[in-house]
Amino acid sequence: MNTGISLAQFIAEQSAKAADQDVTDLHALLGHVATACKVIGNAVARGALTGSSGSAGTDNVQGEVQKKLDIISNEILIQQTEWNEHIAAMASEEMEDIYPMPTSRQHGKYLLVFDPLDGSSNVDVNVSVGTIFSILQSPAGKQPSAADFLQPGTAQVCAGYAVYGPSTMLVFTTGNGVHGFTLDRETGEFILTHARMTIPADTREFAINASNSRFWEAPVKRYIEECLAGTTGPRGQNFNMRWVASMVAEVHRILVRGGVFMYPKDTKDLAKAGKLRLMYEANPMSFIVEQAGGASSTGRARIMDVQPDQLHQRIPVILGSKNEVERVVRYHQETL
Ligand code: P6P
Question: 246 CB less than 6 Å from ligand 1?
Answer without folding.
Answer: yes
